[in-house]
Design brief:
single chain, about 200 residues, alpha+beta, Immunoglobulin-like, 4-stranded antiparallel β-sheet, membrane, signal
Protein backbone atom coordinates (compact mmCIF):
# COMPACT_ATOMS: atom_id res chain seq x y z
CA UNK A 1 0.00 0.00 0.00
CA UNK A 2 1.16 3.21 -0.89
CA UNK A 3 0.70 6.10 1.22
CA UNK A 4 -0.80 9.19 -0.48
CA UNK A 5 0.52 12.45 0.78
CA UNK A 6 -1.96 14.42 2.75
CA UNK A 7 -3.45 17.33 0.94
CA UNK A 8 -4.36 20.41 2.76
CA UNK A 9 -7.79 21.68 1.87
CA UNK A 10 -7.82 25.12 0.29
CA UNK A 11 -8.17 27.86 2.84
CA UNK A 12 -10.18 30.93 2.19
CA UNK A 13 -9.00 34.02 3.92
CA UNK A 14 -11.53 36.54 5.12
CA UNK A 15 -10.82 40.08 3.96
CA UNK A 16 -8.64 41.81 6.45
CA UNK A 17 -10.21 44.56 8.53
CA UNK A 18 -7.58 46.78 9.97
CA UNK A 19 -9.77 47.82 12.90
CA UNK A 20 -11.38 44.43 13.27
CA UNK A 21 -14.91 45.81 12.68
CA UNK A 22 -17.52 44.16 10.58
CA UNK A 23 -18.27 46.07 7.30
CA UNK A 24 -21.97 46.22 8.17
CA UNK A 25 -21.15 47.90 11.48
CA UNK A 26 -18.88 50.42 9.75
CA UNK A 27 -21.63 51.22 7.24
CA UNK A 28 -24.16 51.79 10.03
CA UNK A 29 -21.71 54.02 11.89
CA UNK A 30 -21.25 56.14 8.77
CA UNK A 31 -25.04 56.47 8.41
CA UNK A 32 -25.40 57.59 12.03
CA UNK A 33 -22.61 60.15 11.67
CA UNK A 34 -24.07 61.52 8.43
CA UNK A 35 -27.53 61.68 10.01
CA UNK A 36 -26.13 63.52 13.04
CA UNK A 37 -24.43 66.07 10.78
CA UNK A 38 -27.65 66.65 8.81
CA UNK A 39 -29.72 67.06 12.00
CA UNK A 40 -27.12 69.44 13.50
CA UNK A 41 -27.08 71.55 10.33
CA UNK A 42 -30.90 71.67 10.31
CA UNK A 43 -30.94 72.82 13.96
CA UNK A 44 -28.41 75.58 13.21
CA UNK A 45 -30.43 76.78 10.19
CA UNK A 46 -33.66 76.72 12.22
CA UNK A 47 -32.00 78.63 15.08
CA UNK A 48 -30.74 81.36 12.73
CA UNK A 49 -34.17 81.58 11.07
CA UNK A 50 -35.90 81.87 14.46
CA UNK A 51 -33.59 84.68 15.59
CA UNK A 52 -33.93 86.63 12.33
CA UNK A 53 -37.73 86.34 12.07
CA UNK A 54 -38.64 86.86 15.74
CA UNK A 55 -40.49 90.19 16.08
CA UNK A 56 -39.36 92.57 18.79
CA UNK A 57 -41.31 92.38 22.04
CA UNK A 58 -44.32 94.69 22.22
CA UNK A 59 -43.70 98.07 23.74
CA UNK A 60 -45.03 98.67 27.22
CA UNK A 61 -47.35 101.61 26.83
CA UNK A 62 -48.13 104.07 29.58
CA UNK A 63 -51.72 104.21 30.84
CA UNK A 64 -52.18 107.96 30.67
CA UNK A 65 -51.06 110.64 28.24
CA UNK A 66 -47.43 111.67 28.02
CA UNK A 67 -46.07 114.99 26.84
CA UNK A 68 -44.31 115.92 23.63
CA UNK A 69 -42.18 112.93 22.65
CA UNK A 70 -42.93 109.23 22.33
CA UNK A 71 -41.74 106.14 20.48
CA UNK A 72 -44.11 103.77 18.68
CA UNK A 73 -43.37 100.98 16.15
CA UNK A 74 -39.76 102.00 15.60
CA UNK A 75 -40.49 105.72 15.18
CA UNK A 76 -39.71 108.51 17.62
CA UNK A 77 -42.48 111.07 17.37
CA UNK A 78 -41.93 114.65 18.60
CA UNK A 79 -44.84 117.12 18.53
CA UNK A 80 -43.37 120.59 17.98
CA UNK A 81 -46.52 122.66 17.47
CA UNK A 82 -50.23 122.90 16.69
CA UNK A 83 -51.89 125.53 14.48
CA UNK A 84 -55.67 125.72 14.04
CA UNK A 85 -58.05 127.89 12.02
CA UNK A 86 -56.64 127.06 8.56
CA UNK A 87 -59.40 127.40 5.95
CA UNK A 88 -57.73 125.78 2.92
CA UNK A 89 -54.63 123.83 1.94
CA UNK A 90 -53.10 123.41 -1.51
CA UNK A 91 -52.44 125.43 -4.66
CA UNK A 92 -55.11 127.56 -6.32
CA UNK A 93 -57.58 125.38 -8.17
CA UNK A 94 -56.67 122.29 -6.12
CA UNK A 95 -57.45 123.65 -2.66
CA UNK A 96 -58.59 121.24 -0.02
CA UNK A 97 -61.30 122.75 2.18
CA UNK A 98 -62.25 121.38 5.61
CA UNK A 99 -65.73 120.63 6.89
CA UNK A 100 -64.84 122.76 9.93
CA UNK A 101 -61.24 123.93 10.17
CA UNK A 102 -57.84 122.41 9.53
CA UNK A 103 -55.59 122.00 12.55
CA UNK A 104 -51.98 121.38 11.57
CA UNK A 105 -49.80 119.24 13.82
CA UNK A 106 -46.07 120.02 13.40
CA UNK A 107 -43.95 116.92 14.06
CA UNK A 108 -40.45 115.54 13.84
CA UNK A 109 -40.39 111.80 13.09
CA UNK A 110 -37.19 109.78 13.61
CA UNK A 111 -36.74 106.21 12.32
CA UNK A 112 -35.24 104.32 15.29
CA UNK A 113 -35.26 100.98 13.44
CA UNK A 114 -32.66 99.23 11.28
CA UNK A 115 -34.55 99.40 7.97
CA UNK A 116 -35.98 102.27 5.91
CA UNK A 117 -39.65 102.63 6.87
CA UNK A 118 -42.72 104.54 5.73
CA UNK A 119 -44.41 106.58 8.44
CA UNK A 120 -48.14 105.80 8.26
CA UNK A 121 -49.95 108.93 9.43
CA UNK A 122 -53.35 107.36 8.64
CA UNK A 123 -53.36 105.62 12.03
CA UNK A 124 -52.97 108.88 13.99
CA UNK A 125 -55.99 110.36 15.74
CA UNK A 126 -56.34 113.78 17.34
CA UNK A 127 -58.73 114.15 20.29
CA UNK A 128 -60.76 117.01 21.70
CA UNK A 129 -61.77 117.72 25.30
CA UNK A 130 -65.08 115.83 24.76
CA UNK A 131 -63.24 112.62 23.81
CA UNK A 132 -64.06 112.84 20.07
CA UNK A 133 -61.33 111.51 17.76
CA UNK A 134 -60.53 112.93 14.31
CA UNK A 135 -58.58 111.26 11.50
CA UNK A 136 -55.82 112.74 9.35
CA UNK A 137 -56.97 114.67 6.26
CA UNK A 138 -54.83 112.58 3.90
CA UNK A 139 -55.41 114.58 0.69
CA UNK A 140 -54.43 117.81 2.41
CA UNK A 141 -51.31 116.10 3.84
CA UNK A 142 -49.94 115.63 0.31
CA UNK A 143 -49.83 119.40 -0.24
CA UNK A 144 -48.27 120.12 3.16
CA UNK A 145 -45.44 117.61 2.91
CA UNK A 146 -43.82 118.51 -0.39
CA UNK A 147 -40.34 119.22 1.01
CA UNK A 148 -37.48 116.80 0.59
CA UNK A 149 -37.25 114.60 2.64
CA UNK A 150 -40.92 114.24 3.38
CA UNK A 151 -43.18 112.20 5.64
CA UNK A 152 -44.60 110.65 2.47
CA UNK A 153 -41.30 108.89 1.62
CA UNK A 154 -39.37 106.15 3.39
CA UNK A 155 -37.38 107.43 6.33
CA UNK A 156 -33.86 106.00 6.52
CA UNK A 157 -32.65 104.49 9.84
CA UNK A 158 -31.52 107.26 12.19
CA UNK A 159 -32.93 110.06 10.01
CA UNK A 160 -35.38 112.66 11.30
CA UNK A 161 -37.99 114.21 9.02
CA UNK A 162 -40.01 117.31 9.88
CA UNK A 163 -43.58 117.33 8.64
CA UNK A 164 -47.07 118.68 9.05
CA UNK A 165 -50.11 116.46 9.65
CA UNK A 166 -53.52 118.07 8.97
CA UNK A 167 -56.75 117.18 10.75
CA UNK A 168 -60.24 118.36 9.75
CA UNK A 169 -61.97 119.24 13.03
CA UNK A 170 -65.00 121.31 14.07
CA UNK A 171 -64.37 125.04 14.51
CA UNK A 172 -65.19 124.89 18.22
CA UNK A 173 -63.08 121.77 18.97
CA UNK A 174 -60.70 122.08 21.92
CA UNK A 175 -57.91 119.68 20.94
CA UNK A 176 -55.86 118.22 23.75
CA UNK A 177 -54.25 114.91 22.70
CA UNK A 178 -52.97 112.90 19.74
CA UNK A 179 -52.89 109.08 19.64
CA UNK A 180 -49.86 107.41 18.05
CA UNK A 181 -49.97 103.76 17.06
CA UNK A 182 -48.23 101.34 14.76
CA UNK A 183 -51.51 100.05 13.31
CA UNK A 184 -55.20 100.76 13.83
CA UNK A 185 -55.52 97.52 15.84
CA UNK A 186 -52.91 98.49 18.47
CA UNK A 187 -53.88 100.63 21.46
CA UNK A 188 -51.20 103.26 20.90
CA UNK A 189 -49.83 106.06 23.05
CA UNK A 190 -51.56 109.36 23.77
CA UNK A 191 -49.52 112.55 23.81
CA UNK A 192 -50.70 115.83 25.26
CA UNK A 193 -50.84 118.57 22.65
CA UNK A 194 -49.37 122.03 23.03
CA UNK A 195 -51.84 124.93 23.03
CA UNK A 196 -52.74 125.90 19.45
CA UNK A 197 -51.18 129.05 18.04
Amino acid sequence: MTYAPHRTPPVRHAPSHEDGADPALRWRARLWIAGGIVVSAALVVFGVWAVVTTPPPPAVLPDGPVSGVSQVSGFRFDVTGLRCGVSSIGPEGLEQRPGGQFCLLDVNVTNKGREPELFNSEVLRIHDANGEAYAVAEQAAVFLNDRNPTLLNEIEPGDTVAGVIPFDVPVDAELNQVTLRGTLSTPGVRLDLPDPR
